[in-house]
Design brief:
This protein has about 300 residues and is α+β, with helices and mostly antiparallel strands. It has two domains: about 180 residues, no CATH class; about 110 residues, no CATH class. The chain is built from eleven helices and 13 strands. The termini are close together.
């Protein structure tokens, strides 16, 4: 398939037409998008193929049938993991360790190339299209543990991309979209509030504690975040989303226009000494060490979405 058509097809599985006015092929990054608000941003699309055979199948419409008919041979370096049958091809998936290593290399490589992209765009997002021939929902449903080790978390935190989306097959017709930056941010927010729970701090909804959260995130390498205040209610803004937290709820809202607000400059107006308190540090360290991501809450609130596969 034509590379441009392939990239546009992948883009459309992430961005519903309601989210933008127009999208056109571009160069560095791959796609230029104009939002309904007039904001122009870019999307870089890259692939994670489990091996060379999968790469050729995805980019050459005839390669699969040519392998089955023996007109083409399995690439030499794949011959231990790829076997052809009468009507199908068997491909051994990579180990989890190899996948993490490959993902880290992809993210770090794209982070380095970000400075060479179109500087007239408001921001750029990255889509990693993961292509497997097996559908392991256990992997996807435990995305925090599957896609994020300490090294990848750091690469995601420091990434200049507004968001890093992973698009992964969950069946022959469906994809799941995983926003890595939101995943990391949510876990840091959850660790912060779990720590406050251990300290028996009940009213965490005041602006002071939102500003404390902002400083806490900054201390832990999550800086592309600000707090929006409206009608005495607060939301946490990052990536392409607003996270609304409450005593019994957490919601994710798409932002139609991402106008940054410099709430970091107000940090000095608040008493944030709790963060440097020895008891806070000790409890926070224990919470982080034993942390288990609240997968059910995250899924229920729509942080991950199933989407129908389009033309790729």
């Amino acid at each position: 398939m034509n590379k441009r058509k392939l990239e546009m097809g992948i883009f459309k599985t992430i961005y519903d037409k309601k989210r933008y006015n127009d999208a056109v092929p571009w160069d560095k990054p791959d796609i230029k998008v104009i939002k309904n608000s007039g904001v122009i941003f870019g999307v870089e699309v890259t692939h994670y193929f489990q091996n060379e055979t999968m790469a050729r199948i995805a980019t050459n419409d005839n390669f699969y049938s040519e392998l089955l008919s023996a007109k083409k041979k399995v690439p030499k370096k794949d011959r231990k993991i790829v076997k052809t049958g009468k009507n199908t091809i068997f491909i051994k998936p990579p180990t989890h360790e190899k996948m993490l290593k490959d993902f880290l290399e992809i993210i770090e490589d794209k982070n380095q190339k970000h400075s060479g992209y179109d500087k007239d765009m408001s921001y750029i997002t990255l889509i990693i299209r993961q292509r497997f021939t097996t559908y392991d929902n256990a992997w996807v449903n435990n995305s925090y543990d599957v896609y994020l080790n300490d090294e990848i978390k750091q690469a995601v935190k420091k990434s200049p991309f507004r968001e890093i989306y992973v698009s992964v097959d969950v069946s022959e017709t469906m994809l799941k979209v995983i926003p890595l930056k939101v995943l990391v941010l949510f876990s840091e927010i959850d660790i912060f509030y779990n720590t406050l729970d251990f300290l028996n701090i009940e009213d965490c909804s005041t602006k002071k504690y939102y500003m404390m959260l902002l400083q806490y995130l900054k201390n832990n390498g999550v800086e592309d975040v600000f707090i929006r205040e409206q009608d005495n209610k607060f939301t946490i803004c990052s990536s392409e989303w607003e996270i609304v937290t409450g005593e019994k709820e957490i919601k994710l809202l798409e932002r139609s226009d991402f106008r940054k607000e410099n709430t970091h400059s107000n940090l000095k107006l608040y008493d944030l000494t709790l963060l440097s308190n020895d008891e806070f540090k000790k409890i926070e360290s224990s919470v982080r060490k034993n942390y288990r991501f609240p997968r059910d809450l995250f899924f229920e609130e729509g942080f991950f979405t199933n989407v129908q596969k389009g033309v790729e």
